[in-house]
Design brief:
two-stranded antiparallel ribbon; mainly alpha; 8 helices
Length: 141
Amino acid sequence: MPCVDESQNLKDLARLRRVRDRMDREYAQPLDVEALARGVHVSAGYLSRQFKLAYGESPYSYLMTRRIERAMALLRRGDLSVTDVCFEVGCSSLGTFSTRFTELVGMSPSIYKRRAAGDAAGIPSCVAKQVTRPIRNGVRR
């Protein structure tokens, strides 16, 4: 029979996977740590600490990375403005979006859009997505 601590750890990991899966699915929705924590019946502080221990980054950072990945795909497509992409991926502030995009990608969204238009021509989108995935802390996720 598993010990109580092991059983609790498994429950916590299942909760964290549900939170991560929700962020992957609903990245464009207005999500915050409090709402995510309520969804799995824990406090926001507890969720943040456990998520960071399990995944190496805060829930907010994880969500923003998902949003930036989606934004990169939309910008490569080329038919939306940077502002439209910002709101399409669930960001409510163009300034915050541009700052986070630049931190993760290494260039502003507008420069990325201009470069991606020429660089990704003729490359299948599944390959372009993998090759252009943002790198956080020197680690491609």
